[in-house]
Structure formats: C-alpha cells, structure tokens
Amino acid sequence: MKLLTKAQHQTLLANSQRQEAVRGTEAEIDFSPVVKLFYPAGVATWLLTELEPEDPDIARGLADLGMGCAEFGTVRLSERDVTGPLWTRVAAR
C-alpha cells in the first residue's frame, strides 16, 4: 500500500529543502501538516511535515502514539505499511 500521493511526496520534500537552510536556528519553519497518518484499530497518529531528501522513506513530523505525550521526530514510512489486527492498516488523509 502506498501511503503518500505524488503531490504529498513533493510537498514534503520541498518543505525539507526549505527547512534545511534554517534547521537548528531560531528561523526554523513551523510547517502545517501535509499528511495525517492514523491507525484505525488504535490511537496512533502521525502528522507529517517533511521527508528526508537522502532517504525519502524517513518523514519528520508530530507523532502521537496515544500515550498523552506527542513528540516531534522521525518515522520510517515503510514500517507504517503493516497489517494489524482485523486486517487494519495505517491510513492516510
């Protein structure tokens, strides 16, 4: 299953390129989420804002695994493409 559309993929890469010049400074850009991934059989949600240009399987964004403490970090997209209980899969919106 492909999680991202071509347009989402391009936007995530463009965001990463814009961020690269200012990463780690006060000028860092706070992007709006480009895509929301969620797990229908659970509570996990990922709001993705960027893709790593060197490895587009790694996305940056806000991850909320349902434990009450969301955090900004990275996620490997290929690891989200798994089938869970009752044949549920991570879905994109």
Mean pLDDT: 83
Question: Helical amount among residues, as a percent range?
Answer: 10-25%
Poorly predicted parts: 84-89
Structural class: alpha+beta
Global outline: globular
Task: Give a verbal description of the structure.
With 93 residues, the chain is of the alpha+beta class. The protein has one domain (6-92). The protein contains 1 helix and 5 strands. Strands 4-3-2-1-5 form a 5-stranded antiparallel beta sheet. The longest helix has 15 residues, at 6-20.
Give me the secondary-structure topology:
Elements: H1 6-20, E1 35-38, E2 45-51, E3 58-64, E4 71-76, E5 91-92
Antiparallel strand pairs: 1-2, 1-5, 2-3, 3-4
Brief overview, please?
By secondary structure, the chain is of the alpha+beta class.
